[in-house]
Amino acid sequence: RKEVEQDPGPFNVPEGATVAFNCTYSNSASQSFFWYRQDCRKEPKLLMSVYSSGNEDGRFTAQLNRASQYISLLIRDSKLSDSATYLCVVNPPESYQKVTFGTGTKLQVIP
Amino acid sequence: GAVVSQHPSWVICKSGTSVKIECRSLDFQATTMFWYRQFPKQSLMLMATSNEGSKATYEQGVEKDKFLINHASLTLSTLTVTSAHPEDSSFYICSARQGWREASSYNEQFFGPGTRLTVL
């Protein structure tokens, strides 16, 4: 099993739609989690951290399910500008262990 | 938010030459910096992790003698691609992390804008 798995997509959704991505991780001791957004030919930018209690920022909601070992990202009222690749990042329990990036889920919001 | 810069943003060089890429954390001290490589339409691939003042830890398959990493200060890390070849052409991205706290958003990485290397 891969350390971090994401559905590569692409997810093609119309403007205004709600879309959700999941990211599963294999190390149950993983500690902190993030969603990053990467636009084509650009560096990843932090979208939001994922806390045990969930995290909401405007149209974006991130949740953590430790029992099933996945994090999710929900985007409501999709905008054209949301089109990007969304990467989940899983931090290990110890600082000397490797941070793991998912391969990303590509989202295309269509008019 | 924290800012990480990279220089140069793009470089074209001849095969066999060496290229140095700088990564700087501008408004925070980075105890750990990471170097990634990304080929077109592929995901980020971690090349190495470097902690200030110590040797970098390279990922499997990454030649440490070819990709020299120096992390001499808390705000600067450099990656030197030695004797570059066309297959080294890629998008090189660094990231920096302030430190480490268990289960905390403090652990987030801040990315530089990347350096696009083309080796002719």
Could you explain how this protein is built, in words?
The complex is a heterodimer of chains A (111) and B (120). Chain A is mostly beta strands and 111 residues long. Chain A is globular. Chain A contains no helices and eleven strands. Chain B starts with a strand and ends with a strand. The A-B interface holds A 31-32, 34, 36, 41-46, 49, 51-52, 87, 89, 91, 93, 95, 98-99, 101-104 and B 1, 32, 34, 43-44, 46, 49, 59, 91, 93, 100, 102-105, 107-114, 116.
Structural key phrases:
heterodimer, A: 111 residues, mainly beta, 6-stranded mixed beta sheet, 5-stranded antiparallel beta sheet, 11 strands, globular, B: 120 residues, 7-stranded mixed beta sheet, 4-stranded antiparallel beta sheet
Strands of chain B, total number: 11
Secondary structure category of chain B: mainly beta
In DSSP terms, counting alpha (H) and pi (I) runs of 4 or more, how many helices of chain A?
Answer: 0
Largest interface (CB < 8 Å): A-B, 24 and 24 residues
Mean pLDDT value of chain A: 90
Order of helices and strands of chain B: EEEEEEEEEEE
**Sheet of most strands of chain A:** 6 strands, mixed
Q: What is the general shape of chain A?
A: globular
Cα-to-Cα separation, first versus last residue of chain A: 37 Å
Helix proportion range of chain B? under 10%
CA-based shape of chain B = globular
- Order of SSEs of chain A, N→C? EEEEEEEEEEE
* Residue windows where pLDDT falls under 50 for at least 5 positions of chain B: none
The number of distinct helices of chain B, counting runs of at least 4 residues, comes to 0
Mean pLDDT of chain B: 89
The biggest beta sheet of chain B reads: 7 strands, mixed
How many β-strand stretches of chain A? Answer: 11
What Rg of chain A do the Cα atoms give?
A: 14 Å
